[in-house]
Structures are given as structure tokens and as C-alpha cells.
């Protein structure tokens, strides 16, 4: 027999789940980007298609999802029919298809191979991240509804990432990270959703200028550090001769050490904010795929800087240190291409040279030593 739910209980489910699962801590939204982005992208798609455009019904759908998850874990079948309507059902369906292994067979196959979703503990671990993301999205909907009315959340999200979301019936699903081995699957799935049919080289080429900008900033921006200008700021910018025919956004880092000595605030268009978001997500995922354990923005940039070609970090605080070949008198080199070009000029092309190369950081500490064999061909 189904367990009845009254209106009071329905309204309190988010508080109940927050106590049981916790919430996303402040400034750590980036840790959940591989789940938040697909969920919010799917909400935007279904909102466009349904034309409902009302955050209140999306919150109702989130509440229903939370009851369903609680029912899975505690083996309770709630009677939620009185709360499901034609207005919230489109949001409900797409939410469940995004993360629920008992609704989406694709997710179930992956979940069963990685954790025990037949046990209470396994279900709790599996749903921890999706619950936190649902609670975070609900909070965001409430904020923007208060600011701009019932359509406020969807209007805000359209400005933030709308240009990247195609009007199709594709549902982006997530692979929930339960243990360390899941990270790569989650990263790959998220990458496929943001960069469909693109190889690593194509992604690098598309994001090269934006990734370089992030290295210049010195931190990876998060969505809650990007704000649309206020009416007063628009007016001030217009008086300075600025073009305000399109929406403009400011990047205001929460850590004010990144504002720089002049406290300048960067202005961006909507397209710029989306590029910045894609590059930020790519950096988080690329770092995780390659074994970076830290979630701190600066640590990730330091880690990724050692993996990417030097062009990404040139003239930034993360620029790779020069190569030094100790066996030849520690000749400082600006980069490998310059060194190979020099050898090819001196020794002639078509030869190979075997070298012992020591990599040092800016403080002259040895980072690693490797033996390399370089074919001598002109690089420039």
C-alpha cells in the first residue's frame, strides 16, 4: 500500500533530504559540474519545448524526485499522484531520465557495475551527489524567482548557457561518481555532452584562447562569480562610451587577491561567459582524467599547466620553466622547439640526438629527469 504524503510533508522534503545528505558547500559547485550541467541543460530544453517557463513547477518536480529517491533508499512507495500535474510532469520526467538508474536503463547498467544499488548504503552513496545538486538547483530557482518572477531562473540560465543548448530531444544523462574509478566515466560523458563528436585536438583548438585567459586570471571562475551588470553599471559604462546594446556580465572573483592591483572588473558578453564556462569545465575534467587529486582551482591550473603545450601558459604565472640540458653546460632554453631548431641548424637535419634532460622549476629545483631521443628537423 502506498504511503500518503500531505502538503506539509511535500513542502518539507528538501529540508529532510538536506539533513540526510548534506548540501553543496559554498564555492564548491565546480566539484559537481559534471552533474549540475546536464541536469540544468535538460531543464532548459524541456522548458523550451513545453513553454511552461515557470520555476515553481520545476521546484515541484524536484520535490517529487526527492520523495522518489527517499522511497528507493527506505523501501517506501509514496503516493505522489496528487502532486504530479501536467505543469510539473515535463520537468519531472527529464530530471529522472538524467540521473535515476531505475528510470534510465543506460544509467542503471553503469550504476550496477560500479556499486551495489540493491542495498540501502549503496543507494545512499549513489544518490548523494544528485540530491545535493537538486537541492542546489532548487535554491537557485528560488533566488531568481524572487528577483525576476516565475520565469526568472530559466531567463537567467538562458543568458548563461542557453546558446550552447540545442533544441533537440537529446537527454544528457550523468554517471554519478560513487568511488574513484567512476571519475573518468563521469568526465567522458560530460565531455561528450558539451563537445559532441569532437576529439581532444579539436577541443583544444576551440578553447585555446579561453584556457589561456584562465591561466592569465590565475583561477578557474565559477558561475556564481559572474553577474549581469546592474542598471547603474550599464548607465556608467554607457557614459564611458561603452556599447550596451547586448547584455554584459562582470567577473568578480570571491577571492579578492585575483582582482589585481587596480581592482579592475572584467566585462564579458553572453558568448564570453559560455566560453569561459566550457573552458572551466574542461579544465576540471581534464585534470581529473589525468590524475589530479586536488579540487582547488590554483592546484588544478598548476597540474594542467604541466600537461598542456607551453603555448597555453606562455606569459602567464603558470608558464613552464625552461628546459636545461645539464650534460651540455646547463644551457637555458626557452622551449623544446627552439632547442631542436638549434641542433638541426648545427648538426644537420635527418639525424637523431640522444639527450638526458633535466626539468627544473623557477626556483631551480629538479622536477624530473628523462632520457629523450629527438629527430632533428627544423621546427620553424
Write the layout of secondary structure elements.
Elements: E1 3-4, H1 7-21, H2 33-50, H3 55-74, E2 78-79, H4 89-99, H5 105-114, H6 120-148, H7 152-161, H8 182-194, H9 200-217, E3 226-228, H10 231-239, E4 248-251, E5 266-269, H11 270-289, H12 297-305, E6 323-325, E7 331-332, H13 336-347, E8 352-360, E9 366-375
3D architecture notes:
This protein is of the alpha+beta class. It folds into three domains: 176 residues, no CATH class; 113 residues, no CATH class; 53 residues, no CATH class. The chain is 51% helix and 10% strand. It has 13 helices and nine strands. The strands form three sheets. Strands 7-6-8-9 form a four-stranded antiparallel beta sheet, with no helix packed on it. It has a three-stranded antiparallel beta sheet with strand order 3-4-5. A hairpin with a 5-residue loop joins strand 6 and strand 7. Helix 3 packs across helix 4. It is globular. About 8% of the residues have low confidence.
Features:
single chain; 380 residues; 3 domains; four-stranded antiparallel β-sheet
Summarize the structure.
This protein is α+β, with helices and mostly antiparallel strands. It is built from 13 helices and nine strands. Helix 1 crosses helix 3 (55-74), helix 1 packs across helix 6 (120-148) and helix 3 packs across helix 4.
**Which blocks of ≥5 consecutive residues have pLDDT under 50?**
177-194, 323-334
What's the end-to-end separation, in Å?
Answer: 76 Å
Helical coverage, percent range: 40-55%
Order of helices and strands: EHHHEHHHHHHEHEEHHEEHEE
Radius of gyration: 25 Å
Question: What is the tally of beta strands?
Answer: 9
What share of residues are in beta strands? 5-15%
